[in-house]
Amino acid sequence: MELIFLGTGSNNPSPHRGASSLALRVSGTSNVYLFDCGEGTQIQIQRSSLRASRITKIFITHLHGDHLFGLPGFLCTLSSSVLTSPVMIYGPLGLREFIETTLRLSYSWLSFKYEIVELIPNAYDGVDENLIKTTIDKQEKSEKCRTVTMNEDGRYHLIANDDNCAVYAISIKHRVPTYGYIIIENDLPGKFDIQKLQQSGIKPGPFCSRLKAGESVTLDDGRVLSPLDYVGPSRTGRRLVILGDCCDASNIIPHAQNCDVLVHECTHDNTLREKAIEFGHSTPLMATTLAEKCNAKCLLLNHFSQRYKSKSIENKENVVKKSKKEQGGAEAGENEDEDDDDVTVDLLLEQAKQSTTKPVFIADDFFTYTIPLSK
Ligand SMILES: [Zn+2]
Ligand SMILES: [Zn+2]
User: Fold this and answer.
1) DSSP 248
2) Cα angle 356, 361, 364; round to 5
3) Is residue 75 part of a domain?
4) Same-domain status, 107 and 211
5) How far is the CA of 15 from the centre of ligand 1 (A)?
6) Most confidently predicted of 161-165, 187-191, 244-248
7) How far is the CA of 327 from the centre of ligand 1 (A)?
């Protein structure tokens, strides 16, 4: 399993960072899940190693434009690909209206089959119940859309066993109904010990796949091989938590214990905590506090205010500024003030590391993280 961050900026795309989007390569298949689709996501996909036609499921965390404005354009581009299975699109109530309205008003048409699954807000989301009812009533009955309500355990159960994993959504606190997604991989079969087989004087053959699958095998010479002797114990599947924008994601804690990865937004630095909370966002300390409470094995930070530049971009810009100064260009003097304001994501990383000993990474655009299997 591999996470590829396509856009890691908050509010809007910029030359430095794309708007929110994150891809997950699912293990054991060529399928890719996309989480959020901010403006310009399709360009970021083209700049990455991903193939758009491999995206089979799209999860939208909330309906703010910086997580959604790239979706109609991406779907239209996807229409030029040959897709063998329907594209599933999950997100808050209102997602269907957004997709269908933008497609209709732009005279667009999708060549592939798709289904929209809308999550009905609950009392936690603070949405007027009458408004929810009216919105649902307005929904035309359609094969292309269905709705999911929250279970008694506080989770929205979205996927049972596709691609060898289950996916749940859980409400988290932002300014509008927003969800975090939990992906739980099924346990994986144990390792096949081919050396032990060879040491027993047995030549590997097609029977090995049956042995790997847990079946006993009788060889031509009458020997019976038990999988218990050649296949190790099953390995625990990975557990990923991908959060949307939030200033309080504590709802996720009981369901995210010992997760392998927690992806948490980090819009502002610790000195701007009040501003962050006012706008429904988080700081490094807020993210590490949640990571500690979940006992997450690794914390990946994304969704940075555009004022925090990536280190590599800052270096490039300094070269440009320096060369302009050397040329005595008019812009050189104007840019000197901006130099004082330059601040990079290193500040966010430093602050995060002050409050946790867990591995923490800043996910700039195209940052890729392979999630290891537990030992
Ligand atoms: Zn956002
Ligand atoms: Zn938002």
Assistant:
1) B
2) 145
3) yes
4) no
5) 17
6) 244-248
7) 39
The count of other CB atoms within 10 Å of the CB of residue 101 is 11
Of the listed ligands, the closest to the CA of 303 is 1
User: 205 and 93 in one domain?
Assistant: no
375, part of any domain: no
Pair 171, 127 in one domain: yes
Residue 62 CA to ligand 1 center (angstroms) comes to 9
Which ligand approaches the C-alpha of residue 305 most closely? 1
Pairing verdict, β 178-185 and 368-370: unpaired
Residue 17: Cβ-neighbour burial (10 angstroms; 0-12, 13-18, 19+): buried
Residues 121 and 265 in one domain: yes
Catalytic residues: 66
Mark whether 247 and 355 lie in a shared domain. Answer: yes
Residues 6+ apart with CB under 8 A from 372: 260
Q: What is the mean pLDDT of the chain?
A: 89
Q: What does the alpha-carbon distance between residue 52 and residue 70 come to, in Å, rounded to a whole number?
A: 13
Angle at 204 between CA 202 and CA 206, to 5 degrees: 130
Any idea which ligand is nearest the CA of 174? 2
Q: Report the DSSP beta bridge partners of residue 55.
A: 32
Average pLDDT over residues 323-338: 44
Q: Tell me how far the alpha carbon of residue 351 lies from the centroid of ligand 1, in angstroms.
A: 21
Q: Are residues 301 and 215 in the same domain?
A: no
Does one domain contain both 304 and 321? no
DSSP 8-state class, residue 111: S
Residue bearing tokens 């709705």:
147
- How far from 348 is each of 282, 300, 339, 366, CA to CA, in Å? 11, 12, 18, 18
Domain count, the chain: 3
Q: What is the pLDDT of residues 204-263, one digit of tens each?
A: 888 888 888 888 889 888 888 888 888 888 889 999 999 999 999 999 999 999 999 999
Q: Which structural domain, as residue segments, surrounds residue 220?
A: 194-230
Tell me the HSE value of 15 on the side-chain side, using a 13 A CA sphere: 5
Helix axis angle, 284-294 relative to 346-354, nearest 10°?
40
